[in-house]
## 1
Amino acid sequence: MTSSNSRRSFLAGATTLLGAGVVSRAGAATLPEAPVGPSAATAAPLVPPNGRPYNPVVTLNGWSLPWRMKNGVKEFHLVAEPVVREVAPGMLANLWGYNGQSPGPTIEVVEGDRVRIFVTNKLPEHTSIHWHGQILPNGMDGVSGVTQPSIQPGKTFVYEFVARHAGTFMYHPHADEMVQMAMGMMGFWVTHPKDIRQHAVDRDFVFLLGAYDIEPGSYTPKVNTMLDFNLWTFNSRVFPAIDPMVVRQGDRVRIRAGNLTMTNHPIHLHGHTFEVAGTDGGWVRPSARWPEVTTDIGVGQMRAIEFVADNPGDWAFHCHKSHHTMNAMGHDVPTLIGVDHRGVAEKINKLVPGYMVMGEKGGAMGGMQMQLPENTLPMMTGTGQYGEIEMGGMFTLVKVREGLARGDYRDPGHYRHPKGTVAYEWKGELPPAPQAPGMQQLAPAQGKPLELKRGGGHEHH
Amino acid sequence: MNIDKPLRLASGAVLALAVSGCATFSADGGMGAVDQATQAKAGAATKLLRTDDDRQALAGQLRAMLAQPLSADDAVRIALLNNRGLQATYWELGIAEADLVQAGRLQNPAFGYQHKRGGGETSIERSLTFNLVSLVTAPLASRIEGRMFEGAKLRVTAEALRVAADTRRAHVEAVAAAQALDYARQVAGAADASAELAERMRRAGNWSAYDQAREQAFHAEAMADVARAAKAATAARERLTRLLGLWGEDAGYRLPERLPDLPAAPRELPEVERAALRERLDVQAATKETEHTASSFGLTRATRFINVLELGAVRERDGGEPASKGYEITLEVPLFDWGGARTRRAEAVYMQAVNRLAETAVNARSEAREAYLAYRTSYDLAKHYRDVVIPLKKQVSDETLLRYNGMLVSTFELLADAREQRVAVAAAIDALKDYWLADADLETALGGRLPASAQAHGAHHDIK
Ligand SMILES: [Cu+2]
């Protein structure tokens, strides 16, 4: 499968546009360029070439949308269209997105900017865009049927408003939204403060939490899935394909995340404490912030967390729902822990050649190499310097290193631990492991049916 | 002395016999024709077992054939030689031929010699007595018995071919049933593994009694299926064993593990109806019957003539009157008796035969068409299972294993899939069995073996 990008223009670096846009030459006189996202790699921050200055963000495995200035108005052009997103090397997803990628490009503006956004619909059905969290005229809110007619396929609508408040926002459709959001229609919006020094940080990362249900062997998400998703993503990528967040030791770091899935995600950072500095509503007063190592991002919410990266190392950063740090897995697989397979495995092997016992000692696959269905990913994958990282999905690393250059986001590789700072195996004498008195060893519980007393509450025997 | 007349008559009889042709016992007792027919129409020889030597020779032949898994062709070969019912039928030929020969033979002349002495006179009386009746009836009786003998040959051949066809069918059924049993055992193996794992899941505290009971119920049902399949396999095999006429140690013969593969292409037979009319024994028999009936006008006349004469002659002899006299008198009687009623009867009998022949021909054509259509349909169905259903099921299994590898499904889904394959594999075995049965039926409907060239065998396709 070839990416639909290849035949079209793409971005080299983040600031230079190459090739023609998707709009016709006649339209180009009035419509701004609609650049196309080059790849699923993290693009370097987009330093503003004109307009008010700001400190750009870095979109994890994504990019920011260039604009043109027209009579003092920042003009952006979003094209809603089907895209093929690489969820991870070896797995592609037929999604809907904007400008060649899902999620769409991050839109960065400055407080007080007048913004005009052209939205062209190249989807097979109508759409609209809601600017989640923006305070704007009602007619620009993008709820099809309520504040505007929906944008029919092939049509372009213009949204225009002033970005009044600094903060962290999203854009997504408010037309057939169940399908369109399940298909990956979403993007990030950052309104930077007018005063470049206000809320300034050294590194500012953004991503959206997304969930997809793509049956192994297929490419298109099942849009009717409510909760039992099998791909948990940051910007439609899963670990180990989510880029690390690389920071210099001592940097003040901000991570902004928005949740467009159908459940909450307790996002956890190792090695540091952080403060929740912002929500969709804006910046939290310093006196109201509280220290955290995990913050729950509810459905439809934005959170900006801030911390000083004072602790060098490779620090895990992930959703704390353990199934959310897994890739495609069977949720109906019974627990095999403690079940002896001896003898049975041979019988099964006669019937199912190639059968291997898994799960009898736990979930770890112990480096087994096995063939999987097409277009899916192992449940847990990725290798660190000490072996397998048994996670997938919403997981990445915050890599804190000394002396990195300001704009250097390149992966510095594995952390080199100072001598004597890595857990090691005890080689001395091993006392017997203590056990609770009266506890039978390896005795699974056995029971009888409960008796239920009607009328008098129930009693357990 | 009354010796002269009989002698004259006897010489006349010899003359008559020389004209009609005297029937003698053939070297093969009629089996040559039957053997020729079974070789052509069933692809196997047949032989009447007359002596212990014959039986010992057959035993040796059987040992060689039974040393390896019994092919359908070998089964037919054995049945044609060893089926005792068939051997009994073969002896009918002997009976018919004996009747024929008997009919063609004159009764032995009796020579009498009387030496009387008394009253000083010695008289010597020599007499030669001869059955005049048989002399006159012999050619006519030979004709009848000849037809009877021909009819017997056809009947015996038909019976041999029936046994051959039954054997071919029974062989297909027995192999298919054994294959189905083998597969049922495999499925029970899957269920057994499933049930055992379920029990361990329960012991480890990972599964409820509900889950365990469900898996074990599958196992219990699979065991019942094995029992049913075993019963069916035994019945099918014993049917074959009976047709083969085997018992004791020989009944322990081995069958091929699986049915032959589907040929690469089905037989192309554009002229099934013509083949049926040309080759079928029932059509041939009905044709002969009609031909015989056609000549039965004359036959009836002759029969009456003979019968009357015979009665008269016997009476004459009993009375001691000269035989020639009776002969002359009674000779005229049947001619007077030859009336319209008999002609009408003969006509009716003839028309009956003609219509029977027509019916036989209509049925033969229809059966040939039906058999060919059934054959083509069963070929297509077996091919569909081989080329479409089974590969798809195999793909499902492969994909299930991949999903298991990805921990997307459990061992139980794998085993459930193995169980589910059963329906498809059983249906595929059934479809292949139906094809081979239809093939055998087609040969029967068309009156015998079809050219082997159409039997191009396909590549080996595993349906397990
Ligand atoms: Cu989560």
## 2
Amino acid sequence: MSVTWLARKLTVVAGLAWLVATIVFLALHMVPGDPAELLLSTGGVSPDPASVAELREKLGLERPLFVQYAAFISGLLRGDLGTSLIDDYPVISEIALRLPRTLELIAAGSVIAILVGVPAGVFAALDRGGAFDRAASAVTALLLAVPVFVLGTLLVLLFAQTLRIMPAGGFVPFAQDPVQHLKLLILPAIAIAKGLAAVLFRMTRAAMLDALANDYVRTARAKGLSPTRVIVVHVLRNALNPVVTVLGLQMGTLLGGTVLVEYVFNWPGMSTPLLRAVEGRDYPMVVGIVLTISVLFLLLNLVVELVHALLDPRVAHS
Amino acid sequence: MTISRRTVLAAGLAAPFASLPLLSRPASAQRAAGILRYGLSAFPPNLQPWVSTGASAGTVKMLIHRSLVSYGPKGELRGELATSWSLDGDGAWVFKLRPGCVFHNGDPVTAEDVKWSIEQIAGEKSTAYMRSQFQSVERIEIPDPGTIRLVTKTPQATLPSWFGNYNTFILSRKSTPTEFIGAGPFRLVGQERGSSVEIAAFDKFYKPGIPKLRGIKFVVYADENLRFAALQSGDVDMIEYVPWQSMAAVEADPRLKLDSQEGPFMDVLFNGSKPPFNDPRVRRAVAHAVRREDIVKVAFFGRGKPLEGLPIAEGTPWWDKDLAHGWNYDPARAKALLTEAGFGNGFQTTLLATAQFGMHKDTAEIVQQHLAAVGIQCELQLPDWSTRVARGSKGQYDMAIHGVSSDNNDPDGLTVVLDTTLSPSHGRSFRVDAPRTIAALAKGRAEFDQAKRVEIYKEMQRAALEEVPLVGLAWRSQGYGMDKGVMGFTNLPGALSNSSGNMLEETYFG
């Protein structure tokens, strides 16, 4: 893997990020809806047109579109994503505040998914055709079929409204109240984990079955190694390779998938400002958030590719 | 003390289990401290005192700021920073300030602060909600330090109610564009962006014993079902905008209670700049074609009331039984009116609403069905709310569904929805000709004699029933849900329901 290869990849990431920013910027300005009017008409009836004109001027919305675009791109090159049209708050600060929460949710969800999905997959493979295998496969099918917001709502209904042992949703910073923070994290993390756990289960089960069929397993057993040692050292180590790859790729999709979960559980990650910004036509905020998610997604893919390249030098030269 | 990685991990894993016993009584600690946890429906876009940023922001703003007047539990205007107000012989409104009121910085509230605040609202560069009203104030005089005299360009019978609006606050002249110094019963003490706002009692508030709470923590639950779930699970003590489908569940829960009022209403708006809705007979046909009970049942789960006239609340002096049913459900009459207007065979048109709010979409679907029954075939247009607003104010529609609340319970508060000569807005019909209605509104605004005003507004209703600047569809309930231990709160009647947040100053735990 050469520096040129990496530089080329990074240029592609930068180019794609610019494309995403431009498309989102233009698409947003093309759909109807005036941020100034929306901001001032929250009472149901539109405000004085003079007030709207005043605000439009203040927000710089009176300038021609290409001037706004040029200002936006030059800001972007300086690392400035602009300020929110709704509350004059820097977009970058909003992202700095919200992104860690979204990533925390993804991390917690991934941990749960790994802790549940991988062992269940292993046991199902070992129990091929048995009661556990069939039950776990059925549950997985169900989990994949149930939409995340349905599961989220059911969790709230069961644990918050009926049993009253969990909060319905919301957020408390960890530093302020660690216990409450973790309590609020559990249900959304389970909802996030749902799909990933099911995928990991299937992947692990299939990879384990593949690995179990290999000659070296028979050899290991023939050598008289304990069954646990055979499974852990010989089978699992080989079976986990594809599982890790799938996990890396799925993390990217989780970025998008958290939007619904955050909404259902009132978790103030990236989704709330994104929804609010789209509804209020808060152009800089929408572009900033979409751009951040896109760049993260692109970088994650680059990392996966990088790992591949490290493992298999042919990838870097292809 | 050193904390190892293992300790942290162990604590993290054990925490959910260790805390289980605490979870069953989540409200007790906060309640003992006198902190009310309130489920807000939207995070305030900002807390600028004079810019309309919605009723949820209004609830917070009403508690940290104060105006000359506010509304009492029965919807009556009551003194706040002013003790009394009256008209003088020259037709100017004179307000007497209450002695002993102080701002949060400790400064007394003076007539100069009142004058400065009004000037900011009416200012050249202002984006205030009440800007145009206050621009009709010709001059502000301070005859003595405790008196303010407002001379208006034209007579304004309802001027005192302008100060009851939750976008009209009196601020200290020392306020800056980023720091607003108010005189309300609470002070803003913190906010977690997008999630919560905290206010604490102001100990120098001018009403003895008010506020009764030590503080309020507003937690934002944008999703209405989660807001209800938070109330039911005990995460919060009180919520606003109880979803209609959950009102029965709140009433049925022995731990909870519901306070609902019919205030906001749904209506049909028209584009009067082109046929067929430039003809009042066609608009009247629409008014007679819709069976309102269906809207109340389907869109509001029975939590509302049919509205077959202008949105004037029953029980007020302005209400008249016959006029209130002037647009009764009568499909035969609707067909006859269409025939008379030359549309005996019906016509094709469009109906604009939004899919973003279920009540708008459901109402539109029912209206569509009833109109089809008399020959008006509507194509539904259901864009997101932002697009709906833009198309409404540009007149890019034929008919539209809207949901709104009057400014207050005086018929003059309907001006914003009835006066089609005002600037185009998504909340009122586009270029519909209703000269007699509008003239009557102006006449009512300039008349100070109550008996005469009652007659004028009945005349206004008669004119509107013929000119049809809008078609009333349904009153809808606006409900607050709360724990049974929450006392002292009153949901204000009618259009004032959105101003009920002010009552949180009198709320306490029983």
